[in-house]
Amino acid sequence: MAHKTTSSILSALEKLNNFASAQEVHAEIIKGKSSVGLTTVYRTLQKLTQAKEIDFVRREDGEGAYKLCSGTHHHHLLCEKCGKSVEFFSSKFEKLLDLIADENGFESLSHRAEIVGVCRQCSLG
Predict the structure, then answer these.
(1) pLDDT tens, 49-79?
(2) Bridge-partner residues for 86, per DSSP?
(3) Eight-state DSSP code of residue 112
């Protein structure tokens, strides 16, 4: 059962293709005629996040959101209007973070970045 639930959740996240709340993931699973409880979805999303199989961000309203992302180190650009998310990696950004850490007496820095703004489509619309 656990494997089927995990598979259903990963499939729902793939279809949603943006950061989604547990309720949105649950609704997507139900649309596919699968039966799983919301509590199970929350618990499985938490386990997948801890295993680094999915990404987690906290939305501006405080709600958690999840997304199936690439397995490589990356950051996110998030549109606060439409919810669009884009993964990015920048060696310049990484070097800047290393410089900031060094200037402040840190040898090693683990980091995660979410840049919130408005995407081009929303700013033109």
Answers:
(1) 998 899 999 887 889 999 998 778 888 999 9
(2) 77
(3) -
Distance (Å, rounded) from C-alpha 10 to C-alpha 29? 10
Map residue 22 onto helix, strand or coil. Answer: helix
pTM above 0.85, yes or no: no
Query: In angstroms, rounded to a whole number, what is the distance separating the alpha carbons of residues 116 and 102?
Result: 26
Q: All domains of the chain, ordered by start, with CATH?
A: 2-67 (1.10.10.10), 75-124 (3.30.1490.190)
Assess contact for 29 and 42: CB atoms under 8 A: no
pLDDT digits (tens, 9 = 90+) for 88-112: 999 999 999 889 999 999 987 678 8
Report the b/e string of 6-42 with b at 16+ CB within 10 A. bebbbbbbeebeebbbbebbbebbeeeeeebeeebbb
Q: What are the strands of the beta sheet with 114-117, ordered from one edge?
A: 85-88, 75-79, 114-117
